[in-house]
Fold these 2 entries.
Entry 1:
Amino acid sequence: MGMTTANRRSETRAEWQPCKIDNRKALTNIDAIEQVVMLAEGSALCPTFFRVAKRPLEYLAKRLMLTKEQVALFSVFVNFSDRSQIELRDISEFLGCTQIEILRRASDLEYLRRLRYIWRTCSSSHAESYIISQQALSAIKDNREFAGIQTTNLTINQFFEHLKKYFSERDASQCDSNELTSNIDKLLEDNKHLMFVTKLKEYKLDKNSQLMLLQGCNMYVNSEDTVITLNDITSLYEYEYIARDIITKLNNNDHPLLTLGLLKHFGDDVTSPDYYELGRVAIEELLVELNLSIHKQHMVQHIISHSDISAKQLFYNERERRQIEELESLLCQERFKAICDRLEAKGFRRGFAILLYGAPGTGKTETALQIARTTGRDIIDVNVSELRNMYVGESEKSVKRLFSHYRTIVAESEVAPILLFNEADAIISKRSEDISHAVDKMENALQNIILQEMETLEGILIATTNLTQNMDRAFERRFLYKIEFHAPELQTRCAIWQSMLPTLCDADAMTLAHTYDFSGGQIENIARKCTVAQILSSSDTLPFETIRTLCNEERLDSLQNRRLIGF
């Protein structure tokens, strides 16, 4: 007959012989763990092991506030602390027992995990895996006492640090929704002294709604990502029927978080049901204990102050000059507010969307900067490439977040800043009719959100682009003012040459203007190279032929072809 599991286990234990350890040596955390590990190998944690390892186990039990059984398990985990994942079969193989034996100690494992001695991780296999808590490992190395990560009597900031960890674990699939709910329930129960917890209970929310609200609060406090998507909501729950029920109530505007004002449609746009944000009631009632001024700092981190913009003389063709002067006049604060009020009274939207388009190097970006300087408006410089994130859903959230922050800044500012989309070709191009590919679908969703936001814009948006042939007609309609920048005409080019190179006589400036149909950016580039040449030659002037040589070098092709480059 074959040997039973019990017989094999008995034989293993009978064969196991504990190693010799020095019981006279003064112990430290590391010394004690080393002795436990040496004695535990192959022992299957049998009674004899606990007898011979009594001294280091008792030492560690006091230092770590654990039982002897928990100390033994934790010590073996520490032995594998150099691994990115520790699976239960690693522990069972080391101890010389079956994984069933380890599972019999599930309550001890759960205690170690709940107090964050160990963390559950994502495993490439279906087996449970863990890592050692850095806090516990640091305490061992520093020979300090450690009682696990406590959740009682926390400050409000400590409370939100724990909340952040719990939601991060859920995002990383390190716990399921039941465990997340259990952790949060204990966190709330242990911190009834906080106004946040008291107020939360007054709303009498069901468990699923409370979880949604806490997630929204966590995002508002702990990250810049204050936009809550349906995916953020549904990913909290294990069962699809819960997610479907929540989505239905949100779409019908009868979810308790919406009716209580704790959650709202992003930007108050009920036509965009996929995006939400924390409601004003939640911010003013629930989060009153927190100093959220730090949270708002990221809203202004890309702002260019108008006072930091250097004055620069720009040269325009006559038609462009008139349009820009008119625009500067409209955007002066004294007139701008009156115009916006008048538009609103007539039922029009208050926002101004402006498109500056044309050939490279014609001064579009610099014009936007000089408009900001002369009208006393700061600029929020949008990094278009950051908005077009590679992850599905993240781009849309970035755009929503951007416009939400801009609305906040406009509401809080005496002079509305300019929202600048520089080189916006990628986001105002024609939307794809074929949305079978995920990338095309994402790009269309991104553009649709920008179009919606432009409809409700309060403030000033300026976009610059070199390419208008491929611009979507929907964007074209939403730009109230459209100024085309042409290559400078003869007289304008002559003025630019004389401005950039004051030593040129009138005749030479006109010769250069007539011979080379450069943009302002190209002329500036040549002027910079002239300055370098002057420094190298220790001369205040350059021969005219040298300037012409630099002009010829500016072209990539021959004089006959006359194809030019810009910036």
Entry 2:
Amino acid sequence: MFSKILIANRGEIAIRVARACKEMGISSVAVYSETDRNALHPTKADEAFFIGDGPAADNYLNVEKIIAVAKECGAEAIHPGYGFLAENAPFARACDEAGIVFIGPPASAIDAMGSKTMARELMQKAGVPIVPGTTEAVDTYEDALRIANDEIGFPVAVKASAGGGGKGFRVALTEDKLKDAFEGASREGEKFFSDGTVYLERYLPEPRHVEIQILADKHGNCIHLGERDCSIQRRHQKLIEESPAPEWVVDEEMRQRIGKIGIDAAKAVDYVGAGTIEGMLQGDEYFFLEMNTRVQVEHCVTEMTTGIDIVKQGIKAAAGLPLDYKQEDVVLRGHSIECRINAESAPRNFAPAPGPIGNYKEPTGPGVRVDSGVQAFGEVSPMYDPMVSKLIVWDADREQATQRMLRALDEYEIEGLETLIPFHKALLSTDDWARGSICKDLVEDKEWLKSTAPAPVERYEKDDEDEKVTKEYLVEVGGKRFDVKVIGEAFAGGVVASGAGAKAGGGAKKRGERKKSAGGGPDLLEAPLQGNMWKVLVKQGDTVEEGQLICIIEAMKMENEITAHKAGVIAELMIEEGAPINTGAPIAMITAAPAAEGDSAA
């Protein structure tokens, strides 16, 4: 077994891995960026290393820097968590070349499953059912149009070959929407995965998203831990997950059938470690969607129903040890539900709502688990994803687990942030949820989403004086010192900062009620969120219709489409591509179109 593991991640997953290491008697090493100087995750590891300022590309995604830290601290293995470098085959190879174990599958498996077109072709050869569509990249829009009309039909899904997590996924319900879908999926693929190639699939309008948890070792053992139902999503991003699926959706016969599909898919690429086969269930048909070659965000619900620690099993597999379990040892007991507590505004189309946190209190009690990466007087940074925590509950059955989740959501206190807690409470109280619906109509119903709006949220910000006080506390956290070597710019004697330091600094200052979202005055269109102006699709003087796309704001790794709140003329355009934009900042002044010649006031 390893004696020291570097965790190449941040937030709740970094803390989750550090805890597993602690229980296994393994020393853990955290890394953190300047943005995360006061974050919680570095304080949960035995050592912590500063890896630089700037965007993630300069720190958490910097392969050379991560490898350098691992060598410096003497780590024998690196756990990538999820996101960042978790499904990066070149990083896995770089670890091998440096003599460091990558805790995950071999690079060849990441390559095979990382390309959706290659994965579809491999799965087809392995006898794994795939959604009808292309197994090769589609090069041009004209080719896509021909294939959609002649071979697949509409509606059609356009997917980035290297996409994942809902990015690089667009749907064309009709022929006239295909060009936008093709270009949008390609653009996101290039932006997020440096690969703009796309492929086409038959679009299944309302399938259930059912996935299989896989564990495999280097001795040829491969088992599944049952299924998770992750059907409640928005923009192809998961919101609520449960294990097992409702019994009227997946019975024991289907569980074994799709479990075998998952094992066959993993074996086809000689998989090692923890991974997930994602699939779509339409009636009694199950189609392979993709494989996530890493631990999933929602692995927790499977841990709750099986009693198996997925993170520990992944570490053991990477160390060359056999799995602790055989398939017959896997028994699902009770029901578990996970709600993603994101700093997002459901009434504003799930726009990211990052910012400082005031007081913070997590729910507790029987059957309640919270995996979080924040604490009181911490912050959800716009630099990263909007997750505050994952709230997981377990109980004897789905109905009781639902009631336990509602109780836990009521207990959760997060001051200063708008989160999805009101949305989760509202959705879990509906008949749609009780019936096991995928709740698509609710999640896409803007009027219903407005009904989940919380009371006005007060924001907090630290002034310069608070910052000075905070820095005085960087040297010590709760009496615990961090005697580490710092890679990059040294500060405060080479010791890690902590969120506790920020709290000790005190003095969180109220900014007042948060500015309401897009709309502004009768003519003014305002930004509903903070981010960067990714694309501007109109120019001053253009005539626009209500609902027409004006611009796209990138925020927390997501593209947010901003549409005209009224019909009229762009009298003034106050934005430019590539520039940062704050919540409430003016985007455009849209005035009434001039009356056509010959029109009368009457």
